[in-house]
Amino acid sequence: MKDFFKQKKKLLLVVMLMVVTLTGCSVPRGQNGKTYVDSIITIKEETVARKNVDFEKGSKAEKLYKDLKPDERITIKPTTFSDAMDEGWFHGIIVYPIAQLINWVANFTDAGIGIIAATFLIQLLIFLFSIKSQVANQRMQALQPEMQKIQAKYAGRTDDRSKMAQAQEMQALYSKYKINPFGTLLITFIQFPVILGMYQATMRAYSVVTGSFAGINLAKTPIEGLKEGQIAFGVIFILMVLFQLLSFKMPQWLQEHRKKKQHVKEKKYAEPKKQPGMMGSMNMMMYMSTAMIAIFAINWPLGMSFYWLVNSIVRVGQNLLIHKCFIKD
């Protein structure tokens, strides 16, 4: 019973962390996908074309610049740490430094390299602090057949004795594979503010709003680029969707490869008809989240698709590294 309440406290902490984070952040772009001019973060004074930004309804910027022609320029003053903190702790501590890192790297190369450098650095830090969690996530794939067996065994049995027996068998299964599901959730959601901060920083960094990668304009949407006959926009968008799916499926495929290599034969246990099981739910979430990202990204500046592509490639690499170096059984 003591362990139960400890786990409940961890879950409550996770929920509170998510609520605080979501409350502390805001949406820095309009419905057209373009960043609000007041939300752009820059190292020094810069200018931006009116056509590349949007304005919050009723804001001072809208009153000042709404009558500008698309190619006319708007001057943006340098963003200070104090300015970012005025927006809230989330912007000052997480979004601001990441956005300025992207801007700083972009000064020597371009916006695409800035996104790549910042993404690799952030993902490396997350990886170092969450190796156990990511290893546990891959181990979760190994216990799926046994978990399904337990679910099938107690399917339709709703009495308290059966529920308790099922819970005990599930706990024994987690102990066998040395997995603490609540601990894994806690570590996973601690990463949530940083990942969200990286996404917001990519939207707000001046170098991304106005920049390019290898000559490809990151401010244009994939639709706009394709209409102009620029195939690179479609390539980046399609690669983003594919690698997003690959990053989700990789742990499952690696586990299947491991079993095949070790000649592990397991019986396939039927899952309860009305309970699709954890794997089915995970697959559904994977396809839905990827579809949502694709729907939004097709009409958002290419910089967003490029960020999701780089982020997914890094996650695929992390999964391969964990599989090779940390999963021994």
Automatic annotation (TrEMBL):
Any Gene Ontology biological process: protein insertion into membrane
Domain of life of the source: Bacteria
Localisation per UniProt entry: Cell membrane; Membrane
Keyword Chaperone among UniProt keywords: yes
Transmembrane segments: 111-131, 179-199, 231-251, 284-310
Segment forming the signal sequence: 1-26
Residue ranges constituting the Membrane insertase YidC/Oxa/ALB C-terminal domain according to the UniProt record: 112-324
Pfam families on file: 60KD_IMP
Keywords of the record: Cell membrane, Chaperone, Membrane, Protein transport, Signal, Transmembrane, Transmembrane helix, Transport
Molecular function as annotated in GO: membrane insertase activity
Membrane topology: Multi-pass membrane protein
One Gene Ontology cellular component: plasma membrane
InterPro entries associated with the record: YidC/ALB3/OXA1/COX18, YidC/Oxa/ALB_C, YidC_ALB_C
Family: Belongs to the OXA1/ALB3/YidC family.
Protein name: YidC/Oxa1 family membrane protein insertase
